[in-house]
Amino acid sequence: PNIILPFGLVVGGVTALFIISVTVYYIFRIDIVLCFRRVFPVLYANKDGKLYDAYVAYPNPGAFGFNEEVEEFVLQTLPKVLEQACGYKLFIAGRDCLPGQGKSPMRLW
């Protein structure tokens, strides 16, 4: 029996499937990781003990470099993208400070 043709088709199919899988992974790797975080939250639990993933520093009102565009970006755009879409937890001074607490989040980490 001629086994070369079926064997070649199987090897060629597996190779093509592998190449397509690797290409799709490299194109959509961030989306795949974010999907796995949503589907399996237990695997991505906060294991390092930190309350926040990032500290956002921006000029205070009245300081050089402050304007409404900066404030809108920090208080609306960043949380929408990083917290809601990507699942990160941001510390933004003025928003996350508790009354009577110092302004530095270092004590919280």
From TrEMBL:
<dbReference type="InterPro" id="IPR035897">
    <property type="entry name" value="Toll_tir_struct_dom_sf"/>
</dbReference>
<keyword id="KW-0812">Transmembrane</keyword>
<keyword id="KW-0472">Membrane</keyword>
<keyword id="KW-0393">Immunoglobulin domain</keyword>
<feature type="transmembrane region" description="Helical">
    <location>
        <begin position="6"/>
        <end position="28"/>
    </location>
</feature>
<keyword id="KW-1133">Transmembrane helix</keyword>
<keyword id="KW-1015">Disulfide bond</keyword>
<dbReference type="InterPro" id="IPR015621">
    <property type="entry name" value="IL-1_rcpt_fam"/>
</dbReference>
<feature type="domain" description="TIR">
    <location>
        <begin position="50"/>
        <end position="109"/>
    </location>
</feature>
<dbReference type="InterPro" id="IPR000157">
    <property type="entry name" value="TIR_dom"/>
</dbReference>
<dbReference type="Pfam" id="PF01582">
    <property type="entry name" value="TIR"/>
</dbReference>
<protein>
    <recommendedName>
        <fullName>TIR domain-containing protein</fullName>
    </recommendedName>
</protein>
<keyword id="KW-0325">Glycoprotein</keyword>
